Amino acid sequence: MAPSKQIFLNIVIGLLCYRFPAPANASFPYYGAKIGALTRLHHGVSGDVYAVDSRTLFIKNFNYDGEAPAAYFYVGNTPKPSNDGAQRLRDERGGDTALTRRYRNKDITLPLPDGKTLRDIKWFSVWCDEFAVNFGDVSIPSDLDFPRPQKIASLKGVHAVSSDNIVIVDAQTLLIPNFSYDGEAPDAKFWVGRGQRPSPQGLRIPDENGKEIPLRRYDRKTIVLTLPDDLTIFDIGHFGVWCEAFTVDFGHVRIPEGLNVPPSLKMLGISPQSRLNCEVLYDDLAFEVRWAVAGDSIVIQLIAKLDTKEYMSFGVSKSPERSVMIGSDVVVAWVDKDSGKGFAVDYYLGDKSQCSGGLGVCPKVNIENGTNSIRLLNAAWVNGYSIVTYQRSLQSNSKFDIPILVNASQAIVWGIGPLNERNEASYHTHFTRFSTHIDFGRQPIWNCPSPEGAKPDNDSDEDKAVDIQNAGFQGYPPSNVGTSTTLSIKKNDEFEEEFYNNRSQALHSPNRRQESTHQRQRPHSRPVPTPKPSSTSGAWDIPAIQCYEPEDGVFYAQMGPTGGKHGYSAITGHVGWGISWYINGLLIPEIHVVRGKTYTFVVEGGIDADIPAKYHPFYITDDSVGGYEHKREEEKKAVRIFAGVHRTRSGQLTPIGIGRLCNWTPDADGPSADDYQSFGAYQRTLTLKCDPGEPGVITWTPDRNTPDTVYYQCFTHRYLGWKIHVHDSCDDSRFSASASEKHEVHVPFHAPDDFDDIAAEASIHHETKMEFTLPKLSRRVY
Question: Please, are residues 578 and 503 in contact by the beta-carbon 8 Å criterion?
Fold first, then answer.
């Protein structure tokens, strides 16, 4: 897989802070670089102040009696605290009101104002506005060496172990860019220990999925690893890949002493919820929103594959029922790819025009001072993906804010477009086209393409795969960009259409949630809504495969396009999702078989379970919908499967109809499928393209217990297959017609430019013979 698709989720408000850095010989407790203690002047103010990174302060054991009328946190650049040159900070909850509550040995984290770093200020103070009194302060040294992520050496060793330079993100987090390992060793683990070289006395650490199982193959994959428990980067002298069973070093790097990196959020005592929500906003650019509600605030992460000088925006609509741009409250976010600096700007959309004099699409501070409600937590540009994480209050802090609801769904808006010369949002090239809703207060659900490796064996494993390790959003590009996340669009209060693969995606409408088809169904989850029936007018006539053909009883099952308005949806009455099964080169033909005869299905629907768009296990069932893997338990009990699965000792059904991926691919420069009068004409424009590898093979012998009608389906996706008719014999007069024309070799047809009237043509049965391959493959059949 491409490296740009490989960074995986293992922390959720801990790599929220790509910034939360830590120095030498430190261990728990560690809070960053100590600046000093607050002077104790008035109202019981005290506490120790630390620099977490260049833009964040941490106060350990903060005390304040809460009795002053107008006390605030302030920073300034004058020699001593004063009103001149001072700027007010938001409190630890993101609020901008006076400190009226009491603090007793409270640990708090405070961000500096936007655009400010510790190099820009000379003091921090608890200051009373009403009486211009300093209640307590600390000076910021001009030469303060604040923590920051540090780059160390790269991995290089045996078994193709390699990486780019490793980044120590914080005291418990390592980012390993473009990691490779051939996966051939029996017991390789990620390994740390004291001293400069690995030894059996070291400690294995979990992989990017939080598991300590032997490492699989990696091909230039960027991963994030988290040190377990209270182990920090200061407790170890090396990191690498180690074969535990045979005590062999496959490659390691030394951890330099004295690294001045930030503390992790765990070290700062921040413990957000352990699960993360995710929804796809625009699949073509892998635009996703992830969030976690924590107390009276919400942490939101936006990720998308953006061009230079492009922004992504997300927010809530003024109307809770409809997605309306004008009047909405949004954040415009982007990452400067040259500097790596990120931005999250609080906007009010006053009109459909660029900001001018506080009118139009404007940052709130352009309209009125002190109205920014956004706290930027983290930003990164990784392998082509812009990742921005920010925090805001659930409630309104100004007249331009719209509250985020946690007790009901509400309409949201989003957009992607270019920044103008002032780094402000210009027109949006992609935006919310339908009313789109999110229930921000729901139980956490991951409705995005499954992170690589998160294909669990059971529900508890899934929880481990989706759980957030050590508390923290991790910015990561999704592992399967462009895959088929199934979401529903609400138009006129009805579920109108579902999309598959590189199509616009919308979110759940109120009270009609569904699980992503790439997420293993949990107990008590709601069923996936059934799409509204499609029109069957204008359907192509696909010739059935009769009971006497093919003579050898071998069927080739491959993937291909649904054929537009004349294809899958018109044939079946179900909405097509962009791809469907092709049997012997025919688009979802009805198949006729005879009881007592053994049939062989050569399956080429994909073998990589980590990429749902390239993984379509073939099976035969009495279920007309398919997608057995993601059904609820009560639904599974009502389904019979006749071929294509294996039951494990634990009783779990696993698919065996798995083989390399072959796709019937249309001519990119030709007319759309809707322009063809017949499938035969369209079929001649298709070219079969196959990934390397071998097909899978399953056999099936229908018997007297097999229903008269069954279906060939995809184990992981719904509505990709069609009917199989089962007969007692093949001597019925309806089968007396001659067999369809058969061709051994497919020659793609390219229509000339002036070929406007595309004539109807007969369909072709493709039976690519594999006499020498089938005996070998058949030995793998269960």
Answer: yes
